[in-house]
């Protein structure tokens, strides 16, 4: 299980941010479609997670992924992402 710290939101949920080092696959859901997207370091996207939900942040936009939050630990273990310290 992920450990939580830092970035307490007003709801009391802890958020961590991650930089993508190697391509990862994330799932997304829109009212019209469900799709997967490969996101790599060249996309300039930062990941944010509370341990359950993963969001992508880039180009002034924030999108919620349907990929489970447990993927964060797998990607960390495999060196695909790194945590961005505060």
The amount of beta strand, in percent, is: 35-45%
One letter per element, helices H and strands E, the order comes to: EEEEEEHE
Average pLDDT, all residues: 87
Oligomerization state of this entry? Answer: single chain
Total strand segments: 7
**Strand order in the sheet with the most strands:** 6-5-4-1-7
- The count of helical stretches stands at 1
Largest sheet: 5 strands, antiparallel
Helix content: under 10%
Q: List unreliable stretches of 5+ residues.
A: 1-8
Q: What characteristic shape results from the CA principal axes? A: globular
Radius of gyration, whole Å: 13 Å
- SSE-based structural type: mainly beta
Distance between the termini: 21 Å
Can you summarize this structure?
8% of the residues lie in helices and 40% in strands. It is built from one helix and seven strands; from the N terminus they run ββββββαβ.
Report on this structure.
By secondary structure, the protein is mainly beta. Helices cover 8% and strands 40% of the residues. The protein has one helix at residues 71-77; strands at 16-20, 24-29, 34-39, 46-49, 54-58, 61-65, 81-83. It has a five-stranded antiparallel beta sheet, covered by helices on one side. Strands 2-3 form a two-stranded antiparallel ribbon.
